[in-house]
Description:
single chain; mainly alpha; Farnesyl Diphosphate Synthase; two-stranded antiparallel ribbon; 16 helices; 2 strands; globular; DHNA_phytyltransferase_MenA
Amino acid sequence: xxxxxxxxxxxxxxxxxxxxxxxxxxxxxxxxxxxxxxxxxxxxxxxxxxxxxxxxxxxxxxxxxxxxxxxxxxxxxxxxxxxxxxxxxxxxxxxxxxxxxxxxxxxxxxxxxxxxxxxxxxxxxxxxxxxxxxxxxxxxxxxxxxxxxxxxxxxxxxxxxxxxxxxxxxxxxxxxxxxxxxxxxxxxxxxxxxxxxxxxxxxxxxxxxxxxxxxxxxxxxxxxxxxxxxxxxxxxxxxxxxxxxxxxxxxxxxxxxxxxxxxxxxxxxxxxxxxxxxxxxxxxxxxxxxxxxxxxxxxxxxxxxxxxxxxxxxxxxxxxxxxxxxxxxxxxxxxxxxxxxxxxxxxxxxxxxxxxxxxxxxxxxxxxxxxxxxxxxxxxxxxxxxxxxxxxxxxxxx
Length: 398
């Protein structure tokens, strides 16, 4: 008996002996299956092989069916993975917890520079400043989501707080409430320190953040986000935190030194690198809404070369400032230990700059570099205080 195939010709059907089962002729007898389970597979396999020798379409038809099933299975798996990612990581991405290192590093480096100068660390004020900084960074993140929602840049961004909460107004009100609370904390710390220059510098840093993303300026849409980020978190914020570790007493008065300014350059540099790498997976979306980020202008391939040049410049500047005695040798040694993570950033961006699903992680590798470099810089400044004769900061302004 041949395998059922309505379109097969008789010449293509393999020949088998026909034996009529007596059970089929006797209705009263219980019917037995023609084939048991073990016999079906060999007969099917044998017949398909025989058929494919005559009909060339037999095998492609089977392959096409298998491919369709495989494609459906793959699609279902991708949907399940996407659903799993949306449930497991959307909140984490919306909170952007690793990005809050940009609040911790300037404060820690500035406080370490103040400790090098005076040997005093004011822990309570440090906590106050850290809390205020976190509130202000949260304002930056929330207001950025609101204004990108307005322009359509975050239309398909699932981790956007506005898209998750469903309220633009509520998100904006929360953002500016946090800004007000954070600024009040800074004012309180400024009053304790008795240093008016510090609050002026912090105000400049906040203004940089405002004109970066908020209307009517939105300078990030002109590709000016990186220089604004460098200024805000580097010279402005780091120097302000340094000055806020002083007191009204003349004994703890902090002059502006080349050491803290040099250290602030590295803080601003690594923070800007985070922002630069955050554009890689958003190039198409930014271009569609007219946001001319640096990577929209130069492309991801050139952007990967810029990242490589930036890492080389970072460590070259470290060596130059160490040789010029602008930074203590302890900073040079400890910061040099972060070279492997710097190399990791370069290699990862070079290998994945065209893969949107992978290049998303580039900014988080930059966050690691930023945090580790900042920690090494801070430890180097603190360690230099142990050897006061080996390094003495040179005041630039009293």
